[in-house]
């Protein structure tokens, strides 16, 4: 796995909550196990205490995305550095399952929440520094406020997903048609 791909850990963790919709999919140990499965990390041992720990990290990572997306890179970096300091990585070269040698950032020496936070923070740091903080984004299709990393060649990404892009386009089309028929 490329280190930059680990930013997906941060994106998926933050997006377990949809503040604009009032939904939250990180409330139980089963939710944590689902999150781990989604990033391809086997759910070794999820403890009850992992839930509040991951929720706390989630709030900090959301503010990294929000500050970066809204032009406050200093704040975004300060928060991210706090996460990196609190959850250090423990890199290890590994070659399991017949795959080529690659780096694992954290192999559950610490608890599940701690190692997840370490990987998420490191992945986000790699993306923020290689692409630039303005490439961290918040979905532009309200009420969705999902976060994403814009790795597009023309720096044009505005939505978290195809679904939100379609929804936003339909809304614009309807508004135009309404404006036309009002003329
Ligand atoms: Zn591996
Ligand atoms: Zn969205």
Outline the structure in words.
This protein is 51% helix and 9% strand. It is mainly alpha-helical and 183 residues long. The chain has a single domain, classed as Jann2411-like fold. Strands 1-2 form a two-stranded antiparallel sheet. It has a two-stranded antiparallel ribbon with strand order 3-4. A two-stranded antiparallel ribbon has the order 5-6. The protein is globular and about 65 Å long. The N and C termini lie far apart (55 Å). 32% of the residues are buried. The mean pLDDT is 92. Bound molecules: zinc ion (2 copies). This is CGNR zinc finger domain-containing protein. Residues 135-177 form the Zinc finger CGNR domain. It holds the Pfam family ABATE. It comes from Yinghuangia aomiensis.
Question: Could you give a quick summary of the protein structure above?
Answer:
With 183 residues, the protein is mainly alpha-helical. It is built from six helices and six strands.
């Amino acid at each position: 796995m490329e280190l930059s791909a680990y930013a997906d850990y941060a994106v998926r963790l933050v997006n377990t909550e949809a503040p604009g919709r009032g939904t939250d999919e990180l409330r139980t140990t089963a939710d944590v196990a689902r999150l781990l499965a989604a990033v391809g990390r086997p759910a070794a041992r999820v403890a009850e205490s992992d839930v509040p720990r991951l929720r706390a990290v989630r709030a900090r990572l959301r503010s990294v995305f929000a500050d970066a997306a809204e032009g406050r890179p200093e704040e975004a970096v300060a928060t991210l550095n706090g996460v990196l300091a609190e959850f250090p990585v423990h890199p290890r070269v590994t070659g399991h399952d017949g795959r080529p040698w690659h780096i694992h950032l954290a192999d559950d020496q610490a608890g599940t929440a701690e190692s997840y936070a370490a990987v998420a923070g490191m992945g986000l740091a790699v993306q923020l520094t290689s692409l630039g903080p303005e490439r961290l984004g918040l979905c532009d299709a309200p009420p969705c406020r999902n976060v994403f990393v814009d790795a597009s060649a023309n720096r044009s990404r505005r939505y978290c997903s195809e679904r939100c892009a379609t929804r936003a386009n339909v809304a614009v089309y309807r508004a135009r048609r309404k404006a036309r028929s009002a003329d």
